[in-house]
Amino acid sequence: MKKRTKVLTFMVMLFVICVFCGYTRLHQKSKVLEKEQKQVEADIRKAKKKKQELKEKKKYIKTREFVEKTATEKFGLLYPDEYLLKPKE
User: Fold this and answer.
1) CB 77 within 8 A of CB 67
2) How far apart are CA 60 and CA 67, in angstroms?
3) Following DSSP, what letter does each residue of the chain receive, concatenated?
4) C-alpha 63: how far from chain center
5) Which residues, 6 or more positions from 60, have their beta carbon under 8 angstroms from its beta carbon?
6) C-alpha angle with apex 68: 62 to 69, nearest 5 degrees?
7) 59-73: b (≥16 Cβ within 10 Å) or e
8) Is the pLDDT of residue 69 over 90?
């Protein structure tokens, strides 16, 4: 009977150790996944912000102000009787 008790105790201890090791691995993996999730959420927030900025830029590009500014700066086009003053370099 003593031998049987020792074997049973050994088996229970082995089982407890296996469960503890499994729990430890899962806990570490959980922390890693949680960190990755936070990073992905941060990337999503950045992408949404960038999307909003691009929408605003798209609206601005369609305005008359943008067209006039671009025509003046890139192509040197002016309205009649309009002068462009540039500082000396």
Assistant:
1) no
2) 9
3) -HHHHHHHHHHHHHHHHHHHHHHHHHHHHHHHHHHHHHHHHHHHHHHHHHHHHHHHHHHHHTSHHHHHHHHHHHH----TT--------
4) 31
5) 66
6) 95
7) eeeeeeeeeeeeeee
8) no
Give the side-chain half-sphere CA count within 13 A for 24.
Answer: 6
Cα 46 to the chain's mean position, in Å?
Answer: 6
| pLDDT digit string, tens, across residues 5-50 | 999 999 999 999 999 999 999 999 999 999 999 999 999 999 999 9
Q: Which tokens sit at 29?
A: 């993996």
Quick check: 75 pLDDT over 90? no
**Which amino acid is it at 35?**
K
What's the token pair of residue 84?
A: 């462009």
Amino acid of residue 68 = E
Terminus-to-terminus CA distance in the chain, angstroms?
Answer: 102
